[in-house]
Amino acid sequence: MSDSTPVSIYKLAERWLSEDKDPKTSAQIQALVDAKDEAKLEALLRYPVEFGTAGLRARMEAGYARLNQLTIITASQGLSAYVQREIPNACTRGVVVGHDHRHNSDIFARLTARAFLDLGFKVYFYPGLSFTPLVPFAVKQLGAACGVMITASHNPKDDNGYKVYWENGAQIKPPLDLGILKCIEKHSVPNNWDAESIANNVNVEDITESMLSAYIEATQALIQDADLNRNTRLQYVYTPMHGVGAPFAERILEAFGLPKFVPVPEQIAPNPDFPTVSFPNPEEKNALDMAKSLADKMDIGLVVANDPDADRFAAAEKQADRTWLSFTGDQLGTIFAAAVLENMRAQGIPIDKVAMANSTVSSRMLEAMAAKDGFCYTDTLTGFKWIANELASMQKEQGCHIGFGYEDAIGYMVGSQVLDKDGVSALAVFLQLAARLNSQGKRVGDYLEEQYARYGYFVSSNLYFICPDPAKTNRIFSRIRFGDDGKSNDDDVERTNFVRLHANDVLRYPRTIGGFPVSYIRDLTVGFEMHDVDKLSTVSLQVGEFDNVPTFPVSKSSHMITFETRNGGRITMRTSGTEPKLKYYLEVRNSDNDRAAAAADLQKMVRAIAEELVQAHENGL
């Protein structure tokens, strides 16, 4: 199945049919063979689904390139063998396995457990529906060797995923993913399809109630004023977006003493078909419309939501002018950070021992807060595998108290009980703040304004261009790095997402964007970082000659460039690993809280990204 020794697609189909014991997926491949649909067979069989730092995520259908019973079995065989080899006493420490409500999630979880049992592992199992944070919580609580959660989070209904946590309770990060991938390749023949007998296996323990109770107890440290919570008149509408969140939300809200939510009836029960939303992500435009409509009818001014596996959180609030403010991921990050600081101070924890982090494409307001208030701060690459592991390191190596971590994609980690984003604890902490503000006659929007007044105004625009042609994407980034004359458009650009670089390539990054001088450049593809671009000589640098190396990991397999400008602007442009998108994250800071100036600069830079950097019109984007 390698590129170096390609085999006939019909040979691959023959192999699949000999291995697959699921009648549904076997029939799908057989029908394609009978129809001689070689293009579809190639798409499904030629290249195996890749195991990355998010584990596996793909559409559910037949083939080595998709998620199905066969690929779940082989992934679990490889993962279990790797964990057994790498972690001392792994079998007795055990593995935690959970799943959400998506189609096939239950059987995928049981097949995962089966593979670990076959190697002698203890399996801590959630047989019913679980929300994602309960798996990393249990890994940490039980001292397990690893954890697996079957979920595709807020992906479309036809997708599923296989999310892996390491022994510290955080998501795996490189190079673990490569080691696991190699082990999966060595165990690519499925051995055991028996998903039914695990229910009676003596090495399987149902941990549902014990871990949920322990989780609720652990979150009690986040309660600020139990009496105020119990006496609040706060009303709010809640939706779990057809996901698993509702019973877990009820449990934590009861523990916090907060009032019950008003549910969106059409969305409150788990439904893997997500019938009322085109895309089950509360971050998407219009995703909260049904909840807002209900709130309007009931004269309620607050809407809160979890995504389907309840690891993300979103909120919207009706303002004084009766319009809805849908908080962005960065705005919620600022609100949570400020609330956490208040709680830490109330507990008498030294602020210089509080650790917070966010992803490098998230707002720099958290950095500004750290500069003013003195807590420990760092930014990381995108994803909670980086954020959580970095905060855990700050706790271990610097003696810090984990306060808060977030990414702009509405993922929040409040406290240290879960080393991953957790939408359920975020829900409780947010409503607790809303209840306190309500008792003072304030809104959460007012609280956000107070933070702007203290730390400066930050305004952002996070958008993307659709670009299904990898060669065109490469040419766009090549021009940004090397200028119009620095590199050929076709000869030196591969027609894949891999970036080819040569030692004599000459870097000619733009010195202005939208008329604003560039002050900082970081290119995590080339491996270049410079904090004061004014010091860069007029002579352009060759790739093989500079010493300005980033502190972040460098990868030639994707594009990622960050620019900062003298007007307080910051742009990060990157390619998506899962979608044909060229994404950008733009933010402008105005230290004087001048909204009009910040907004004007933002619009100039939005146009400059499209016209100067991406050349959207010329490239047909």
Q: Indicate the overall shape.
A: globular
Structure classification: alpha/beta
**Average pLDDT rating:** 92
Count of individual beta strands: 24
CATH architecture annotation of the largest domain: 3-Layer(aba) Sandwich
Question: What's the CATH H-level homologous superfamily of the largest domain?
Answer: Alpha-D-Glucose-1,6-Bisphosphate, subunit A, domain 3
Radius of gyration: 25 Å
Mind summarizing the main beta sheet?
7 strands, antiparallel
Q: Regarding quaternary structure, how should these chains be classified?
A: single chain
CATH top-level class of the largest domain: Alpha Beta
> Low-confidence segments, ≥5 residues, pLDDT <50?
488-498
Organism: Coemansia interrupta
Subcellular location: Cytoplasm
Protein name: Phosphoglucomutase
Domain Alpha-D-phosphohexomutase alpha/beta/alpha: 50-187, 214-318, 329-455
Q: Would you write up a description of this structure?
A:
About 2% of the residues have low confidence. The protein contains 19 helices and 24 strands. It is 37% helix and 19% strand. It has three domains: 138 residues, Alpha-D-Glucose-1,6-Bisphosphate, Chain A, domain 3; 244 residues, Alpha-D-Glucose-1,6-Bisphosphate, subunit A, domain 3 (Alpha-D-Glucose-1,6-Bisphosphate, Chain A, domain 3); 154 residues, 2-Layer Sandwich (TATA-Binding Protein), CATH 3.30.310. A hairpin with an 8-residue loop joins strand 4 and strand 5. The strands form five sheets. Strands 16, 18, 19, 20, 22, 23 and 24 form a seven-stranded antiparallel sheet that branches. Strands 1-5-4-2-3-6 form a six-stranded mixed sheet, with helices on both faces. It has a five-stranded mixed sheet with strand order 8-7-9-10-11. The radius of gyration is 25 Å and the shape is globular. The longest helix is centred in the last third of the chain and has 19 residues. The chain is an alpha/beta fold. Helix 1 crosses helix 3, helix 4 crosses helix 8 and helix 7 packs across helix 9.
